[in-house]
Amino acid sequence: SGTLEVSDELRAIVGLPRLPAELTLADFLARVHPDDVGILTSAAEACRNEGTPLHVDHRVVLPDGTERILQTQAQLARDADGRPCGLEGTGQDVTDRHRVEDQIRWLAYHDSLTGLGNRLLFRERLDFAVAEAVRSQVPLGVLFLDLDHFKRINDTFGHTQGDRLLQEVADRLVRSVRESDLVARLENPPAISRLGGDEFTVLLTNVADPGDLAKVARRLLEVLHRPFSLGGHEVVITASVGIAAWPSDGSDGEGLLRNADAAMYHAKERGRNNFQFYAASMNAVALERLILETKLRSALERGELEVHYQPKLAHGGERVAGVEALARWRDAELGQVSPTDFIPIAEETGLIGELGAFVLRRSCLDRMRWSELGLPPAPVSVNLSVQQFRAGGVVELVERTLAETGLDPRLLELEITESMLLRDEKVVVAALVALRGRGVQVAVDDFGTGYSSLAYLRTLPVDSLKIDRSFVQDIGERDDEAALTAAIVSMGRALRLRVVAEGVELEAQRLLLEGWGCDELQGYLFARPMPRAELERWWSERAGISLSAPPSPRGADRAP
Ligand code: C2E
Ligand code: CA
Ligand code: CA
Protein backbone atom coordinates (compact mmCIF):
# COMPACT_ATOMS: atom_id res chain seq x y z
CA SER A 1 0.00 0.00 0.00
CA GLY A 2 2.70 2.35 -0.87
CA THR A 3 1.92 4.88 -3.52
CA LEU A 4 2.80 8.42 -3.08
CA GLU A 5 1.58 11.35 -5.05
CA VAL A 6 4.28 13.94 -5.17
CA SER A 7 3.56 17.42 -6.43
CA ASP A 8 5.65 18.83 -9.23
CA GLU A 9 7.19 21.50 -7.03
CA LEU A 10 8.23 18.92 -4.51
CA ARG A 11 9.77 16.81 -7.28
CA ALA A 12 11.61 19.85 -8.53
CA ILE A 13 12.97 20.64 -5.07
CA VAL A 14 14.33 17.19 -4.36
CA GLY A 15 15.41 16.48 -7.92
CA LEU A 16 12.94 13.75 -8.83
CA PRO A 17 11.67 13.46 -12.42
CA ARG A 18 8.06 14.37 -13.23
CA LEU A 19 7.31 10.82 -14.33
CA PRO A 20 6.15 8.26 -13.38
CA ALA A 21 3.18 10.01 -11.84
CA GLU A 22 3.15 7.69 -8.87
CA LEU A 23 6.19 7.07 -6.77
CA THR A 24 6.80 4.77 -3.84
CA LEU A 25 7.70 6.11 -0.45
CA ALA A 26 11.13 4.49 -0.91
CA ASP A 27 11.80 6.63 -4.01
CA PHE A 28 11.20 9.69 -1.96
CA LEU A 29 13.11 8.49 1.10
CA ALA A 30 16.17 7.88 -1.06
CA ARG A 31 16.49 11.67 -1.24
CA VAL A 32 16.06 12.22 2.51
CA HIS A 33 19.08 12.76 4.72
CA PRO A 34 19.82 9.37 6.38
CA ASP A 35 19.52 10.85 9.88
CA ASP A 36 16.02 12.14 9.14
CA VAL A 37 14.61 9.03 7.48
CA GLY A 38 13.46 7.68 10.83
CA ILE A 39 11.20 10.58 11.78
CA LEU A 40 9.78 10.76 8.34
CA THR A 41 8.89 7.07 8.06
CA SER A 42 7.27 6.97 11.46
CA ALA A 43 5.25 10.07 10.60
CA ALA A 44 4.24 8.44 7.31
CA GLU A 45 3.16 5.32 9.14
CA ALA A 46 1.08 7.28 11.60
CA CYS A 47 -0.53 9.06 8.68
CA ARG A 48 -1.29 5.85 6.84
CA ASN A 49 -2.55 3.90 9.83
CA GLU A 50 -4.26 6.53 11.89
CA GLY A 51 -4.86 9.30 9.41
CA THR A 52 -2.71 11.76 11.36
CA PRO A 53 -1.64 14.50 8.96
CA LEU A 54 2.10 14.49 8.32
CA HIS A 55 4.05 17.68 8.93
CA VAL A 56 7.83 17.33 9.18
CA ASP A 57 10.86 19.57 8.66
CA HIS A 58 13.72 17.42 7.44
CA ARG A 59 16.87 17.53 5.39
CA VAL A 60 17.13 16.26 1.85
CA VAL A 61 20.27 15.58 -0.10
CA LEU A 62 20.05 16.56 -3.73
CA PRO A 63 21.75 14.59 -6.51
CA ASP A 64 24.55 17.18 -6.60
CA GLY A 65 25.17 16.65 -2.89
CA THR A 66 23.76 19.92 -1.58
CA GLU A 67 21.54 19.81 1.48
CA ARG A 68 18.27 21.66 1.80
CA ILE A 69 15.65 21.72 4.49
CA LEU A 70 12.23 20.64 3.37
CA GLN A 71 8.94 21.03 5.06
CA THR A 72 6.91 18.03 3.95
CA GLN A 73 3.20 17.80 4.51
CA ALA A 74 1.08 14.84 3.56
CA GLN A 75 -2.29 13.34 4.16
CA LEU A 76 -4.16 10.17 3.31
CA ALA A 77 -5.19 9.89 -0.30
CA ARG A 78 -8.51 8.12 -0.85
CA ASP A 79 -9.84 6.35 -3.92
CA ALA A 80 -13.21 6.98 -5.55
CA ASP A 81 -14.91 4.86 -2.90
CA GLY A 82 -13.29 6.85 -0.13
CA ARG A 83 -10.86 4.08 0.86
CA PRO A 84 -7.30 5.06 1.79
CA CYS A 85 -4.96 4.32 -1.10
CA GLY A 86 -1.71 6.05 -0.21
CA LEU A 87 -0.36 9.42 0.72
CA GLU A 88 -0.44 12.68 -1.12
CA GLY A 89 2.15 15.15 -0.19
CA THR A 90 3.47 18.61 -0.86
CA GLY A 91 6.72 20.12 0.13
CA GLN A 92 8.23 23.48 0.60
CA ASP A 93 11.86 24.47 0.68
CA VAL A 94 12.33 26.19 4.05
CA THR A 95 16.14 26.28 4.06
CA ASP A 96 16.37 30.04 4.13
CA ARG A 97 13.74 30.38 6.78
CA HIS A 98 15.65 27.91 8.93
CA ARG A 99 18.83 29.82 8.47
CA VAL A 100 17.17 32.95 9.70
CA GLU A 101 15.68 31.08 12.63
CA ASP A 102 19.10 29.67 13.53
CA GLN A 103 20.50 33.12 13.40
CA ILE A 104 17.76 34.48 15.59
CA ARG A 105 18.35 31.67 18.07
CA TRP A 106 22.08 32.35 18.03
CA LEU A 107 21.48 36.02 18.64
CA ALA A 108 19.16 35.26 21.49
CA TYR A 109 21.90 33.30 23.24
CA HIS A 110 25.02 35.24 22.35
CA ASP A 111 26.60 38.59 22.72
CA SER A 112 27.14 39.98 19.25
CA LEU A 113 30.09 42.16 20.23
CA THR A 114 32.32 39.38 21.53
CA GLY A 115 30.65 36.22 20.24
CA LEU A 116 30.55 34.87 23.78
CA GLY A 117 27.41 33.40 25.30
CA ASN A 118 25.09 35.89 26.95
CA ARG A 119 23.30 35.83 30.28
CA LEU A 120 20.50 33.60 28.99
CA LEU A 121 22.89 30.95 27.71
CA PHE A 122 24.98 31.17 30.85
CA ARG A 123 21.95 30.67 33.05
CA GLU A 124 20.83 27.67 31.03
CA ARG A 125 24.25 26.06 31.15
CA LEU A 126 24.62 26.88 34.82
CA ASP A 127 21.25 25.34 35.71
CA PHE A 128 22.16 22.26 33.72
CA ALA A 129 25.58 22.05 35.40
CA VAL A 130 24.04 22.40 38.88
CA ALA A 131 21.68 19.52 38.13
CA GLU A 132 24.68 17.45 37.03
CA ALA A 133 26.65 18.43 40.15
CA VAL A 134 23.75 17.42 42.36
CA ARG A 135 23.73 14.05 40.67
CA SER A 136 27.50 13.48 40.70
CA GLN A 137 28.19 15.35 43.94
CA VAL A 138 31.24 16.96 42.32
CA PRO A 139 31.56 20.71 43.03
CA LEU A 140 31.40 23.45 40.43
CA GLY A 141 32.24 27.11 40.55
CA VAL A 142 31.16 30.41 39.05
CA LEU A 143 33.65 33.21 38.50
CA PHE A 144 32.14 36.67 38.13
CA LEU A 145 34.61 39.08 36.57
CA ASP A 146 34.19 42.82 36.24
CA LEU A 147 36.76 45.18 34.74
CA ASP A 148 37.97 47.93 37.07
CA HIS A 149 37.24 51.51 35.99
CA PHE A 150 36.08 50.51 32.52
CA LYS A 151 34.15 53.74 32.24
CA ARG A 152 37.42 55.64 32.12
CA ILE A 153 38.43 53.74 29.00
CA ASN A 154 35.21 54.73 27.27
CA ASP A 155 35.58 58.34 28.43
CA THR A 156 39.19 58.57 27.33
CA PHE A 157 39.27 56.60 24.11
CA GLY A 158 35.63 56.60 23.01
CA HIS A 159 33.13 53.77 22.71
CA THR A 160 34.57 52.22 19.58
CA GLN A 161 37.88 51.63 21.32
CA GLY A 162 36.00 50.53 24.44
CA ASP A 163 34.25 47.89 22.36
CA ARG A 164 37.54 46.78 20.89
CA LEU A 165 38.95 46.38 24.35
CA LEU A 166 35.99 44.23 25.39
CA GLN A 167 36.58 42.01 22.37
CA GLU A 168 40.23 41.63 23.30
CA VAL A 169 39.32 40.90 26.89
CA ALA A 170 36.93 38.19 25.70
CA ASP A 171 39.66 36.66 23.53
CA ARG A 172 42.16 36.61 26.35
CA LEU A 173 39.66 35.09 28.76
CA VAL A 174 38.76 32.33 26.35
CA ARG A 175 42.36 31.53 25.54
CA SER A 176 43.59 31.56 29.10
CA VAL A 177 40.75 29.44 30.45
CA ARG A 178 41.04 26.89 27.65
CA GLU A 179 44.80 26.65 27.94
CA SER A 180 45.04 26.22 31.68
CA ASP A 181 46.22 22.83 32.95
CA LEU A 182 43.29 22.60 35.20
CA VAL A 183 40.80 22.94 32.41
CA ALA A 184 42.64 20.43 30.26
CA ARG A 185 41.60 17.87 32.82
CA LEU A 186 37.92 18.83 32.67
CA GLU A 187 35.48 16.99 30.49
CA ASN A 188 33.32 19.93 29.51
CA PRO A 189 34.90 23.10 28.26
CA PRO A 190 34.03 25.96 30.58
CA ALA A 191 31.25 28.31 29.57
CA ILE A 192 32.47 31.88 29.28
CA SER A 193 29.85 34.56 28.88
CA ARG A 194 29.52 38.28 28.74
CA LEU A 195 26.60 39.25 30.91
CA GLY A 196 26.62 42.79 29.63
CA GLY A 197 28.79 45.89 29.91
CA ASP A 198 32.14 44.89 31.29
CA GLU A 199 30.88 41.86 33.20
CA PHE A 200 32.02 38.36 32.30
CA THR A 201 31.30 34.99 33.87
CA VAL A 202 33.09 31.65 33.74
CA LEU A 203 31.51 28.35 34.70
CA LEU A 204 33.85 25.58 35.81
CA THR A 205 32.45 22.12 36.37
CA ASN A 206 33.99 19.02 37.97
CA VAL A 207 36.11 21.05 40.34
CA ALA A 208 38.01 18.57 42.49
CA ASP A 209 39.54 21.20 44.74
CA PRO A 210 37.99 24.64 45.35
CA GLY A 211 41.57 25.94 45.38
CA ASP A 212 41.52 25.31 41.62
CA LEU A 213 38.95 28.08 41.28
CA ALA A 214 41.39 30.47 42.91
CA LYS A 215 44.06 29.34 40.46
CA VAL A 216 41.86 30.08 37.47
CA ALA A 217 40.85 33.45 38.94
CA ARG A 218 44.47 34.40 39.50
CA ARG A 219 45.34 33.44 36.00
CA LEU A 220 42.54 35.52 34.54
CA LEU A 221 43.68 38.54 36.53
CA GLU A 222 47.20 37.99 35.28
CA VAL A 223 46.36 37.75 31.60
CA LEU A 224 44.12 40.80 31.75
CA HIS A 225 46.85 42.79 33.41
CA ARG A 226 49.16 42.46 30.42
CA PRO A 227 49.08 45.69 28.39
CA PHE A 228 46.52 46.14 25.61
CA SER A 229 47.19 48.25 22.60
CA LEU A 230 44.34 50.66 22.02
CA GLY A 231 44.41 53.25 19.26
CA GLY A 232 48.19 53.35 19.36
CA HIS A 233 48.32 53.58 23.15
CA GLU A 234 49.38 51.00 25.64
CA VAL A 235 46.60 50.51 28.13
CA VAL A 236 46.83 48.54 31.35
CA ILE A 237 43.65 47.41 33.03
CA THR A 238 42.74 45.35 36.06
CA ALA A 239 39.67 43.37 37.01
CA SER A 240 37.92 42.08 40.12
CA VAL A 241 36.64 38.54 40.42
CA GLY A 242 34.03 37.04 42.72
CA ILE A 243 33.85 33.27 43.18
CA ALA A 244 30.91 31.15 44.28
CA ALA A 245 31.14 27.39 44.47
CA TRP A 246 28.44 24.76 44.59
CA PRO A 247 27.48 23.49 47.14
CA SER A 248 29.05 25.84 49.70
CA ASP A 249 27.90 29.16 48.23
CA GLY A 250 24.51 28.44 46.75
CA SER A 251 22.24 25.54 45.89
CA ASP A 252 20.95 26.72 42.52
CA GLY A 253 22.11 28.67 39.51
CA GLU A 254 20.42 31.87 40.49
CA GLY A 255 21.89 31.84 44.00
CA LEU A 256 25.37 31.04 42.74
CA LEU A 257 25.36 33.84 40.21
CA ARG A 258 24.06 36.31 42.78
CA ASN A 259 26.68 35.31 45.33
CA ALA A 260 29.51 35.38 42.81
CA ASP A 261 28.36 38.91 41.97
CA ALA A 262 28.34 39.85 45.67
CA ALA A 263 31.81 38.37 46.09
CA MET A 264 32.97 40.45 43.12
CA TYR A 265 31.85 43.60 44.98
CA HIS A 266 33.90 42.45 47.93
CA ALA A 267 36.89 42.19 45.64
CA LYS A 268 36.26 45.77 44.50
CA GLU A 269 36.07 46.95 48.10
CA ARG A 270 39.34 45.24 48.81
CA GLY A 271 41.09 47.51 46.37
CA ARG A 272 40.24 45.81 43.06
CA ASN A 273 42.63 43.67 40.98
CA ASN A 274 41.96 40.66 43.23
CA PHE A 275 39.50 37.84 43.71
CA GLN A 276 37.26 36.92 46.61
CA PHE A 277 35.34 33.82 47.46
CA TYR A 278 31.79 34.23 48.65
CA ALA A 279 32.58 32.09 51.71
CA ALA A 280 34.94 33.98 53.98
CA SER A 281 36.77 30.84 55.12
CA MET A 282 37.95 30.18 51.57
CA ASN A 283 39.51 33.62 51.41
CA ALA A 284 41.68 32.93 54.42
CA VAL A 285 43.13 29.86 52.73
CA ALA A 286 43.63 31.65 49.43
CA LEU A 287 45.18 34.64 51.17
CA GLU A 288 47.62 32.52 53.11
CA ARG A 289 48.77 30.90 49.90
CA LEU A 290 49.09 34.23 48.17
CA ILE A 291 51.22 35.59 51.00
CA LEU A 292 53.42 32.51 50.93
CA GLU A 293 53.79 32.75 47.19
CA THR A 294 54.68 36.44 47.24
CA LYS A 295 57.23 35.95 49.98
CA LEU A 296 58.71 32.86 48.37
CA ARG A 297 59.10 34.69 45.08
CA SER A 298 61.03 37.51 46.66
CA ALA A 299 63.08 35.13 48.83
CA LEU A 300 64.17 33.37 45.65
CA GLU A 301 64.99 36.66 43.95
CA ARG A 302 67.02 37.84 46.91
CA GLY A 303 68.85 34.54 47.27
CA GLU A 304 67.45 33.91 50.73
CA LEU A 305 66.84 30.22 50.26
CA GLU A 306 69.32 27.79 51.68
CA VAL A 307 70.21 24.15 51.29
CA HIS A 308 70.76 21.85 54.25
CA TYR A 309 72.26 18.40 54.03
CA GLN A 310 71.34 15.14 55.69
CA PRO A 311 73.74 12.19 55.49
CA LYS A 312 72.86 8.62 54.57
CA LEU A 313 74.93 5.99 56.32
CA ALA A 314 76.12 2.53 55.44
CA HIS A 315 77.90 -0.23 57.37
CA GLY A 316 76.28 0.17 60.74
CA GLY A 317 76.52 3.93 60.59
CA GLU A 318 80.25 4.02 59.99
CA ARG A 319 80.47 5.26 56.45
CA VAL A 320 78.75 8.25 54.87
CA ALA A 321 77.22 6.78 51.71
CA GLY A 322 75.55 9.93 50.48
CA VAL A 323 74.18 13.33 51.47
CA GLU A 324 70.66 14.55 50.66
CA ALA A 325 70.08 18.21 49.84
CA LEU A 326 66.94 19.70 51.38
CA ALA A 327 65.70 23.20 50.67
CA ARG A 328 65.31 25.52 53.64
CA TRP A 329 63.53 28.85 53.88
CA ARG A 330 63.38 31.19 56.83
CA ASP A 331 61.13 34.20 56.45
CA ALA A 332 61.54 37.22 58.73
CA GLU A 333 57.84 37.21 59.68
CA LEU A 334 56.79 33.62 59.18
CA GLY A 335 59.91 32.06 60.65
CA GLN A 336 61.08 28.69 59.38
CA VAL A 337 58.69 27.50 56.64
CA SER A 338 58.62 23.76 55.99
CA PRO A 339 59.34 22.47 52.49
CA THR A 340 56.12 20.47 52.75
CA ASP A 341 54.38 23.89 52.74
CA PHE A 342 56.44 25.83 50.22
CA ILE A 343 57.36 23.12 47.71
CA PRO A 344 53.69 22.57 46.66
CA ILE A 345 53.26 26.32 46.23
CA ALA A 346 56.44 26.52 44.21
CA GLU A 347 55.11 23.68 42.07
CA GLU A 348 51.76 25.32 41.48
CA THR A 349 53.13 28.71 40.60
CA GLY A 350 56.01 27.56 38.44
CA LEU A 351 58.60 28.88 40.92
CA ILE A 352 59.81 25.30 41.28
CA GLY A 353 61.87 25.71 38.12
CA GLU A 354 63.97 28.43 39.67
CA LEU A 355 64.00 26.83 43.10
CA GLY A 356 65.04 23.45 41.73
CA ALA A 357 67.78 25.01 39.61
CA PHE A 358 69.07 26.84 42.68
CA VAL A 359 69.16 23.74 44.89
CA LEU A 360 70.86 21.74 42.15
CA ARG A 361 73.54 24.33 41.55
CA ARG A 362 74.18 24.94 45.24
CA SER A 363 74.45 21.18 45.84
CA CYS A 364 76.90 20.66 42.99
CA LEU A 365 79.06 23.57 44.14
CA ASP A 366 79.08 22.29 47.70
CA ARG A 367 79.90 18.77 46.58
CA MET A 368 82.86 20.21 44.62
CA ARG A 369 83.99 21.96 47.76
CA TRP A 370 83.83 18.74 49.80
CA SER A 371 86.14 17.06 47.33
CA GLU A 372 88.58 19.91 47.78
CA LEU A 373 88.30 19.49 51.53
CA GLY A 374 89.24 15.86 51.08
CA LEU A 375 85.87 14.47 52.18
CA PRO A 376 84.98 11.04 50.75
CA PRO A 377 83.35 10.81 47.29
CA ALA A 378 79.78 10.11 48.44
CA PRO A 379 77.17 11.52 46.04
CA VAL A 380 74.93 14.45 46.83
CA SER A 381 71.21 13.70 46.25
CA VAL A 382 68.88 16.37 44.93
CA ASN A 383 65.09 16.07 45.00
CA LEU A 384 63.35 16.80 41.72
CA SER A 385 59.74 17.65 41.32
CA VAL A 386 57.48 16.36 38.56
CA GLN A 387 56.73 19.92 37.42
CA GLN A 388 60.37 20.29 36.49
CA PHE A 389 60.03 17.32 34.16
CA ARG A 390 56.76 18.55 32.72
CA ALA A 391 58.19 21.96 31.99
CA GLY A 392 60.95 20.18 30.05
CA GLY A 393 64.64 20.91 29.99
CA VAL A 394 65.59 18.89 33.08
CA VAL A 395 68.26 16.98 31.21
CA GLU A 396 69.69 20.22 29.83
CA LEU A 397 69.57 21.85 33.25
CA VAL A 398 71.50 19.00 34.87
CA GLU A 399 74.04 18.88 32.04
CA ARG A 400 74.57 22.61 32.15
CA THR A 401 74.92 22.65 35.93
CA LEU A 402 77.42 19.80 35.86
CA ALA A 403 79.42 21.54 33.16
CA GLU A 404 79.38 24.90 34.94
CA THR A 405 80.33 23.53 38.32
CA GLY A 406 82.73 20.90 37.02
CA LEU A 407 81.15 18.16 39.13
CA ASP A 408 81.71 14.52 38.24
CA PRO A 409 78.22 13.19 37.29
CA ARG A 410 78.82 10.12 39.45
CA LEU A 411 78.74 12.42 42.47
CA LEU A 412 75.19 13.48 41.70
CA GLU A 413 72.03 11.52 42.47
CA LEU A 414 68.50 12.64 41.68
CA GLU A 415 65.56 11.62 43.87
CA ILE A 416 62.21 11.19 42.14
CA THR A 417 59.10 10.17 44.06
CA GLU A 418 57.43 6.94 43.18
CA SER A 419 54.06 8.60 42.55
CA MET A 420 55.72 10.92 40.07
CA LEU A 421 57.17 8.01 38.13
CA LEU A 422 53.80 6.37 37.97
CA ARG A 423 51.89 9.44 36.95
CA ASP A 424 54.09 10.91 34.28
CA GLU A 425 55.84 7.85 33.18
CA LYS A 426 56.79 8.71 29.63
CA VAL A 427 58.28 12.15 30.16
CA VAL A 428 60.03 11.21 33.36
CA VAL A 429 61.41 7.87 32.20
CA ALA A 430 62.82 9.34 29.00
CA ALA A 431 64.63 12.05 30.97
CA LEU A 432 65.94 9.56 33.51
CA VAL A 433 67.34 7.31 30.81
CA ALA A 434 69.19 10.27 29.33
CA LEU A 435 70.53 11.36 32.71
CA ARG A 436 71.71 7.92 33.68
CA GLY A 437 73.41 7.74 30.32
CA ARG A 438 75.54 10.67 31.50
CA GLY A 439 76.48 8.84 34.70
CA VAL A 440 74.03 10.50 37.09
CA GLN A 441 72.33 8.16 39.61
CA VAL A 442 68.60 7.97 40.21
CA ALA A 443 66.72 7.04 43.37
CA VAL A 444 63.01 6.32 43.79
CA ASP A 445 61.90 8.37 46.78
CA ASP A 446 58.98 7.65 49.13
CA PHE A 447 58.90 4.10 47.87
CA GLY A 448 55.96 1.97 48.96
CA THR A 449 53.41 4.78 48.83
CA GLY A 450 52.72 4.48 45.12
CA TYR A 451 51.88 0.79 44.90
CA SER A 452 54.13 0.03 41.97
CA SER A 453 54.60 -3.61 41.26
CA LEU A 454 57.80 -5.55 41.28
CA ALA A 455 57.50 -6.29 37.59
CA TYR A 456 57.05 -2.62 36.87
CA LEU A 457 59.95 -1.56 39.01
CA ARG A 458 62.26 -3.81 37.06
CA THR A 459 61.63 -1.76 33.93
CA LEU A 460 62.49 1.59 35.52
CA PRO A 461 65.82 3.30 34.99
CA VAL A 462 66.77 3.63 38.67
CA ASP A 463 69.69 2.74 40.93
CA SER A 464 68.17 2.80 44.37
CA LEU A 465 64.96 2.66 46.38
CA LYS A 466 64.22 4.85 49.36
CA ILE A 467 61.64 3.19 51.56
CA ASP A 468 59.15 5.74 52.76
CA ARG A 469 59.34 6.97 56.34
CA SER A 470 55.82 5.77 57.09
CA PHE A 471 56.96 2.14 56.79
CA VAL A 472 60.05 2.62 58.92
CA GLN A 473 58.02 4.31 61.64
CA ASP A 474 56.00 1.25 62.56
CA ILE A 475 58.40 -1.64 62.08
CA GLY A 476 59.41 -1.71 65.75
CA GLU A 477 55.81 -2.03 66.94
CA ARG A 478 53.78 -3.76 64.28
CA ASP A 479 54.65 -7.17 62.95
CA ASP A 480 52.64 -6.77 59.75
CA GLU A 481 54.48 -3.53 58.90
CA ALA A 482 57.76 -5.20 59.73
CA ALA A 483 57.00 -8.12 57.42
CA LEU A 484 55.99 -5.77 54.63
CA THR A 485 59.10 -3.64 54.99
CA ALA A 486 61.33 -6.72 55.12
CA ALA A 487 59.69 -7.86 51.89
CA ILE A 488 60.33 -4.50 50.22
CA VAL A 489 63.99 -4.66 51.23
CA SER A 490 64.49 -8.14 49.85
CA MET A 491 62.57 -7.31 46.71
CA GLY A 492 64.76 -4.27 46.10
CA ARG A 493 67.88 -6.31 46.64
CA ALA A 494 66.63 -9.01 44.30
CA LEU A 495 66.34 -6.31 41.64
CA ARG A 496 69.94 -5.32 42.42
CA LEU A 497 68.90 -1.91 43.63
CA ARG A 498 70.49 -0.15 46.54
CA VAL A 499 67.92 -0.05 49.32
CA VAL A 500 67.80 2.99 51.58
CA ALA A 501 65.54 3.48 54.61
CA GLU A 502 64.65 7.05 55.56
CA GLY A 503 63.31 8.43 58.83
CA VAL A 504 65.22 6.05 61.08
CA GLU A 505 64.78 7.44 64.58
CA LEU A 506 65.21 4.47 66.90
CA GLU A 507 67.91 1.94 67.59
CA ALA A 508 65.32 -0.84 67.29
CA GLN A 509 64.46 0.29 63.76
CA ARG A 510 68.10 0.34 62.81
CA LEU A 511 68.67 -3.20 64.05
CA LEU A 512 65.72 -4.57 62.11
CA LEU A 513 66.61 -2.75 58.91
CA GLU A 514 70.24 -3.81 59.05
CA GLY A 515 69.18 -7.37 59.78
CA TRP A 516 67.05 -7.40 56.62
CA GLY A 517 70.00 -6.23 54.58
CA CYS A 518 69.11 -2.60 54.00
CA ASP A 519 72.12 -0.91 52.37
CA GLU A 520 71.83 2.60 53.72
CA LEU A 521 70.03 4.31 56.58
CA GLN A 522 69.04 7.92 57.00
CA GLY A 523 67.33 9.60 59.91
CA TYR A 524 67.48 11.62 63.10
CA LEU A 525 69.09 8.65 64.85
CA PHE A 526 72.28 9.44 62.95
CA ALA A 527 72.00 13.06 61.91
CA ARG A 528 69.46 15.75 61.17
CA PRO A 529 69.66 17.92 58.06
CA MET A 530 72.42 20.47 58.74
CA PRO A 531 73.70 23.71 57.21
CA ARG A 532 76.74 23.16 55.03
CA ALA A 533 79.34 24.30 57.54
CA GLU A 534 77.89 22.10 60.25
CA LEU A 535 77.79 19.10 57.96
CA GLU A 536 81.41 19.63 57.05
CA ARG A 537 82.45 19.60 60.72
CA TRP A 538 80.32 16.54 61.43
CA TRP A 539 81.59 14.66 58.40
CA SER A 540 85.26 15.49 58.74
CA GLU A 541 85.20 14.34 62.34
CA ARG A 542 83.84 10.95 61.31
CA ALA A 543 86.19 10.65 58.39
CA GLY A 544 89.11 11.60 60.58
CA ILE A 545 89.99 14.57 58.42
CA SER A 546 91.22 17.83 59.85
CA LEU A 547 89.59 20.93 58.46
CA SER A 548 92.05 23.21 60.18
CA ALA A 549 93.86 24.09 56.98
CA PRO A 550 91.26 26.22 55.22
CA PRO A 551 90.69 25.12 51.64
CA SER A 552 90.26 27.48 48.77
CA PRO A 553 86.70 28.76 49.00
CA ARG A 554 86.10 28.29 45.27
CA GLY A 555 82.46 27.68 44.59
CA ALA A 556 81.34 28.55 48.09
CA ASP A 557 79.09 31.52 48.65
CA ARG A 558 80.09 32.07 52.19
CA ALA A 559 83.21 30.92 53.97
CA PRO A 560 82.46 28.57 56.87
P1 C2E B 1 61.80 13.86 51.36
O1 C2E B 1 62.56 13.96 50.09
O2 C2E B 1 61.16 12.56 51.65
O3 C2E B 1 62.83 14.26 52.49
C1 C2E B 1 62.91 13.62 53.74
C2 C2E B 1 62.23 14.44 54.78
O4 C2E B 1 62.23 13.72 56.02
C3 C2E B 1 62.94 15.74 55.08
O5 C2E B 1 61.93 16.67 55.43
C4 C2E B 1 63.79 15.40 56.29
O6 C2E B 1 64.11 16.53 57.06
C5 C2E B 1 62.85 14.49 57.03
N1 C2E B 1 63.54 13.55 57.92
C6 C2E B 1 64.79 13.05 57.80
N2 C2E B 1 65.05 12.19 58.80
C7 C2E B 1 63.95 12.12 59.56
C8 C2E B 1 63.59 11.39 60.75
O7 C2E B 1 64.35 10.60 61.31
N3 C2E B 1 62.34 11.57 61.24
C9 C2E B 1 61.47 12.41 60.67
N4 C2E B 1 60.27 12.54 61.22
N5 C2E B 1 61.75 13.12 59.55
C10 C2E B 1 62.99 12.97 59.01
P2 C2E B 1 61.91 18.13 54.89
O8 C2E B 1 63.29 18.69 54.82
O9 C2E B 1 60.89 18.85 55.68
O10 C2E B 1 61.43 17.95 53.40
C11 C2E B 1 60.16 17.53 53.13
C12 C2E B 1 59.96 17.23 51.69
O11 C2E B 1 60.05 18.41 50.91
C13 C2E B 1 61.01 16.30 51.13
O12 C2E B 1 60.67 14.97 51.45
C14 C2E B 1 60.93 16.60 49.68
O13 C2E B 1 59.86 15.87 49.10
C15 C2E B 1 60.58 18.05 49.66
N6 C2E B 1 61.78 18.83 49.37
C16 C2E B 1 62.72 19.32 50.22
N7 C2E B 1 63.67 19.98 49.53
C17 C2E B 1 63.34 19.91 48.22
C18 C2E B 1 63.93 20.40 47.01
O14 C2E B 1 65.00 21.02 46.98
N8 C2E B 1 63.27 20.13 45.84
C19 C2E B 1 62.10 19.42 45.83
N9 C2E B 1 61.51 19.20 44.65
N10 C2E B 1 61.54 18.94 46.95
C20 C2E B 1 62.14 19.18 48.13
CA1 CA C 1 64.09 12.83 49.19
CA1 CA D 1 61.35 10.53 51.10
Number of strands: 22
Reading side by side through the largest sheet, how are the strands ordered?
Answer: 13-14-16-17-18-19-20-21
Mean pLDDT: 88
The N- to C-terminal Cα distance equals: 104 Å
Radius of gyration equals: 35 Å
| Number of helical stretches of at least 4 residues | 22
What binds here, in terms of ligands, is: ligand C2E, calcium ion
Approximate shape: elongated
Strand content: 15-25%
Summing up helix and strand content along with how strands pair, one would put the structural category as alpha/beta
Q: Helical percent range? A: 40-55%
The poorly predicted ranges are: 555-560
- For the report, how would you describe the main beta sheet? 8 strands, mixed, barrel
Question: What order do the helices and strands come in, and which of them pair?
Answer:
Blueprint lengths: L2 E4 L1 H7 L7 E3 H5 L4 H17 L3 E8 L5 E12 L5 E10 L1 H15 L9 H18 L3 E8 L2 H8 L1 H21 L1 H4 L6 E6 L2 E6 L6 H15 L2 E3 L2 E3 L3 E8 L6 H17 L5 E3 L2 H22 L4 E9 L4 E13 L3 E3 L1 H11 L2 H22 L6 E4 L2 H6 L2 H12 L6 E6 H6 L1 H13 L3 E7 L6 H5 L5 E4 L1 H6 L4 H16 L3 E4 L5 H10 L3 E2 L8 E2 H12 L17
Parallel strand pairs: 1-5, 11-12, 14-16, 16-17, 17-18, 18-19, 19-20, 20-21
Antiparallel strand pairs: 1-2, 3-4, 4-5, 6-8, 6-11, 7-8, 9-10, 13-14, 13-21, 13-22, 14-15
Helix pairs in contact: 6-7, 7-9, 11-12, 13-15, 15-17
The structure holds ligand C2E and calcium ion (CA) (2 copies).
The site of one calcium ion has 4 residues, from β18.
